[in-house]
Design brief:
The protein is 33% helix and 27% strand. By secondary structure, it is an alpha/beta fold.
Length: 273
């Protein structure tokens, strides 16, 4: 592997294809994702966003192509070794057992604990700090079966952060949160990404949140990359109309200069030209 790759990219995807039966869900995906960057995967329902994220994590084995993590085929890692490289936050996590929130967060430290060992004081302290950051410390003794969907999502985010990996994969991590907690969590993850120099790859539905927090966006359409690049080049009226089938107005956010997407209703509003 060239030194250029090893110094510049956390993740490289080459010719990735994944299908169910005869239906190709991902088609010839090729990407290079920079280290220490915040990357958003966007696209309509059914476009392959979650499948792409799970392929990066090795959860799904591709039918063709390769995913490289720090220059090495993701499928060549042992599960323990891969857990040192990346953490994954799924959407709508459900746990049926009577674990406490603290138990769940401590599970993020398992890659650092020997087979017959147990958590030490450092693991507990790291978990406490992350739970305070994610505002889940007050939930520490609660059974996860009693938590709301939003509380559970914040606990799962805490578990991922305490895993202390250079890559974070997150599948719609704010989907179950109200707008207050959405911004709190996005600010937290963005600050964490900058402070820890990690790579975040996140599936998002909200285009305006994606524009505000992500340095690079990957717009998927029917399992293919429609376009990728900085938010300003991806979130255009033509791109959104072609992929989402809706007309929008793009304006500049007066607070930060990022693009802002305003959907245009079809109920009597004039079409902008």
């Amino acid at each position: 592997m060239s030194s250029k790759y090893s110094s510049g990219f956390s993740i490289e995807i080459r010719g990735l294809n994944w299908q169910i039966g005869k239906a190709r869900i991902l088609k010839d995906i090729g990407l290079q994702l920079n280290k220490n960057s915040f990357i958003g995967i966007i696209g309509p329902n059914g476009s392959g966003k979650t499948t792409l994220l799970r392929s990066i994590s090795s959860w799904y084995k591709p039918d063709a192509g390769t995913v490289l993590i720090h220059g090495r085929d993701v499928l060549s890692y042992t599960s323990r070794a891969l857990a040192h490289e990346m953490a994954f936050v799924t959407q709508n996590a459900r746990i049926e057992f009577e674990f406490t929130a603290m138990d769940i967060v401590l599970m993020g430290r398992s890659p650092y604990i020997s087979r017959f060992g147990s958590e030490n004081q450092e693991d507990i302290e790291k978990s406490r700090k992350v739970m305070e950051l994610t505002r889940t410390w007050e939930l520490r003794d609660r059974s996860v079966t009693t938590l709301s969907a939003g509380e559970m999502q914040r606990v799962m985010i805490a578990r991922a952060l305490v895993q202390d990996t250079p890559i974070l994969l997150m599948d719609e991590p704010i989907s179950n949160l109200d707008i207050n907690h959405q911004i709190q969590i996005m600010d937290l993850i963005k600050g964490y990404q900058r402070d820890k120099n990690v790579t975040v790859v996140m599936v998002l539905h909200d285009l305006n949140i994606a524009a505000q927090y992500c340095e690079q966006l990957i717009l998927l359409s029917r399992g293919e990359i429609f376009c990728s690049g900085e938010p300003e080049t991806v979130l255009t009226r033509d791109n959104i109309r072609a992929v989402y089938g809706i007309d929008v107005h793009i304006m500049e956010n007066p607070l930060n200069g990022h693009p802002m997407v305003v959907p245009i209703s079809t109920l009597g509003n004039p079409t902008l030209t």
